[in-house]
């Protein structure tokens, strides 16, 4: 049985998140949460929330009364690029520099069977 959690429009660049998604992909949920808990970086907080949401979704699916958290593992974890907010900052000699504030869409799929 699979459960999906999606977090959209997260205010962090996908490049930063992908480094930490690679650490947890394919691992069981307890190990993944432990890795993120002891990773003192900002992307780990975003990923932790999405994984906990996916686990809660898996436990609330109908017919999953015999499902345990220890049996779940991260089947798929993907970070996609969201819309970029464009801001401008003044520079010397009347110039303007564009600042791109990137956003991310995080998708985590947890399952109780390994493929």
Describe this structure in words.
By secondary structure, the protein is an alpha+beta fold. It has a single domain, classed as Ribosomal protein L22/L17 (Ribosomal Protein L22, Chain A). Helix content is about 35%, strand content about 35%. It has a 3-stranded antiparallel β-sheet. A two-stranded antiparallel ribbon has the order 3-4. Helix 2 (about 30-35) runs antiparallel to helix 3. The model has no long low-confidence stretch (mean pLDDT about 90).
Topology record:
Blueprint: E1 2-10, H1 14-24, H2 29-37, H3 42-60, E2 73-81, E3 85-90, E4 96-101, E5 104-111
Antiparallel strand pairs: 1-5, 2-5, 3-4
Helix pairs in contact: 2-3
Reading side by side through the largest sheet, how are the strands ordered?
Answer: 1-5-2
- If you compute it from the alpha carbons, what radius of gyration comes out, rounded to the nearest whole angstrom? 17 Å
DSSP strand count? 5
Work out the strand percent: 25-35%
Q: How many separate domains?
A: 1
Main structural class = alpha+beta
Give the rounded overall mean pLDDT: 92
Name of the CATH architecture: Alpha-Beta Complex
The main sheet comes to: 3 strands, antiparallel
Order of helical and strand elements: EHHHEEEE
Which range best describes the helical content: under 10%, 10-25%, 25-40%, 40-55%, 55-70% or over 70%?
25-40%
CATH level-3 fold name: Ribosomal Protein L22, Chain A
Number of helices: 3
- Stretches where pLDDT is under 50 for at least 5 consecutive residues are none
The top-level CATH class is Alpha Beta
**Quaternary structure of the protein:** single chain
């Amino acid at each position: 049985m699979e459960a999906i959690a999606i977090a959209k429009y997260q205010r962090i660049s996908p490049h930063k998140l992908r480094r930490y998604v690679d650490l947890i992909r394919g691992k069981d949920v307890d190990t993944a949460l432990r890795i993120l808990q002891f990773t003192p970086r900002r992307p780990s907080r975003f990923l932790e929330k999405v994984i906990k949401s996916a686990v809660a979704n898996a436990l609330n699916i109908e017919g999953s009364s015999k499902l345990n958290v220890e049996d779940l593992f991260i089947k798929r974890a993907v970070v996609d690029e969201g819309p970029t907010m464009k801001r401008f900052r003044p520079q010397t000699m009347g110039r303007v520099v564009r600042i791109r504030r990137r956003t991310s869409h995080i998708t985590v799929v947890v399952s109780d069977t390994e493929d």
